[in-house]
Amino acid sequence: MGSLTLIVEKGDNLLMIKALTLVLFLISTPLFAQSVSDITADDSYEFLTVTLYTNNKANSFDIFEEAGSAASSSNPHKIYVPFMTTGTANQNFSYYASRASLPTINGGTPTNSPQLRFVLDVDVNGNADDLHVAVADSVTGTYYVLDFIATTTDGTFTYDLSFSDICNITDLTFRCDDFDQTVTPNEIEELGLFFFVNDGILVEGDTITASNYTGDYYELNMSNRIYTSNFVSLTELRKGDEQLRANYSTFSFGTGYAYSLFAYVQPGAADTLCDSVVNASNSSVTLGSEGISFGNLTDLLTVETSGLAPVKSLENNRCYNVQLFFCDRFGFCSYSSEEIQNSPEDIEALLEQQACFFFTAGFGEQHYVVDYFQAFRDNILLKSRLGRAFVNWYYDFAPQHTPYILERPWLQKIIRGIAYVLYGLMHSFWAILFFISLAVVQSLRLRRSS
Predict the structure, then answer these.
(1) Residues 70, 190 within the same domain
(2) Cβ(101)–Cβ(351) below 8 Å
(3) How far apart are CA 17 and CA 273, in angstroms?
(4) Alpha-carbon distance 290 to 285, whole Å?
(5) pLDDT tens across 366-416, in order?
(6) Domain that holds residue 17
(7) Among the listed residues 423, 402, 424, 399, the one whose alpha carbon sits nearest the alpha carbon of residue 411
(8) Are residues 243 and 354 both part of a single domain?
């Protein structure tokens, strides 16, 4: 969009220049200058502007939305819609509280009135223009007009998109019967959605060239996929101050679908202690069979397939039962991990219990490196007079300096680094000795041959 302005002193020439300027302005202005945008197009995950409804809006689901710029088809908003099957009861793997009311399809036709509600910001330059939505197949990329929504002026607009309208478009490669209730739940599909305005009403099924319009792009992802052969393994809960550190390993969902690792935390009575009790029989259960929904889960904020994940905001000296679930963006989760019990303890109690002051202060939790040096103290140092003398000196010196470490996170990091280096050297002592010996022998052979 642009304009040209010239200043001329004579009246006739000025009039002619103004007319020319108007013509140039009209030519340089795109035919479709209006726009439609999501009201929260700010690359934020915090504000859901799309809601899933079923059963004539009797049930609603705040589905996962990933915000993009939405200004082009290459960076759309992404939304993730789960579908329910009955053959293998995949709703039992869903974290939604109303999991039995997820969208259903039978014979290619939606059976419980699933709808998506969009909240849009419409800017039509103060005019009254016609708002539409088009759908694009992920295979062909062709945009088909799905619905004329309304003739509207500037402002916020709410629109309910029915899955029946999507299923009725026969030109799409995508077929709704891919998500029939009786099919094996292992399907993930995507469609493009495009909200735009036009000067005039377009007919359902018309094809459009989306690049001719300014609008809002969505990527509609749909899935009924569950993870019947994938598990989370929880091997240990390490004590920490007001937290437990879950040592786990799990599987990969594939690019773009993993949401987070979640913990199901059940607190026991106050002032009730427990210590690393494992209930393996409580693994391989589903959220549905346990009556667990999203509100019962604690987000551990990681999609890593293995590692240590802190379960925070716990009460010290209280027994907790912890299970882990790995969930995707459609709200489907893995089977449960083993259930482990343990109690968080304040750092002073851990220091007293482990009696390995500097390293315990550095890690701030029960840790395998600290355990290693404890064993080294008990099995090596305390067996000799010199070792016992060092341990006695350490117990006199270390406790008074430990608070200084706890107050300085940068010093804790340094101590952890030193501990890992020493652990690596000592843990691999014989291997290091072997390679040193090998190097000495090789050096002697080279010297002899020379």
Answers:
(1) yes
(2) no
(3) 88
(4) 7
(5) 677 777 777 777 677 767 778 777 766 766 666 666 666 666 678 778 877
(6) 1-30
(7) 402
(8) no
